[in-house]
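Database export, one record per block. Field names are fixed; values are copied verbatim from the stored entry.
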Amino acid sequence: MTQSMPISVGHFSKDKADDVLIGVKSTALLFGDRTKPWLTGFSSVMLSNLAIVGTNSGQTWPYYAGLGCVATHLVWQIKTVDLSSSADCLAKFKSNKWLGLLLFAGIVGGTALKTSSNNEEDKVNGE
């Protein structure tokens, strides 16, 4: 849930007028003028959890470089999104394909380096 919140709230902010019209109690309405601080908080929790996962799984520097790129992408989204513009909210929502690609590349790169390092250690230890 936390991972999808920064992504979803920006998308659903574009539907506020419809939410009010039909009586839906959305997070976009709940957060109101405090949407960007909420998105910042959710993004921070998501990044913290991804860092903990990286530590617990013994990830290497490419993973954390990817995580830095993901953080930069989230900062850009939150800083530049115009929550009153449906088109801009949708554009930011669609840009999350790049967030996913950055995270995936970090995972693949970090895991490949981890596997490579493990193979080198096995050779040194004569295994």
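Remark 1: The mean pLDDT is 84.
Remark 2: Residues 5-118 form one domain.
End of record.
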